[in-house]
């Protein structure tokens, strides 16, 4: 885990699906991805990240606000 004054960065977890859906299903956030993901695409994206940790030893991390515990990226 990496920490800053306001955030911590950590590996994604299966339990992050709901918070991740709020990000990946937001049209404004996902404009660079050619649009928001549907439920199946969110799960597939999360599964890909989780497999990357196992297979490669690294992957994308969650950015979480320390004060609230909210995932923001």
From TrEMBL:
GO terms for molecular function: acyltransferase activity, transferring groups other than amino-acyl groups. This is N-acetyltransferase domain-containing protein. It holds the Pfam family Acetyltransf_3. Residues 6-73 form the N-acetyltransferase domain.
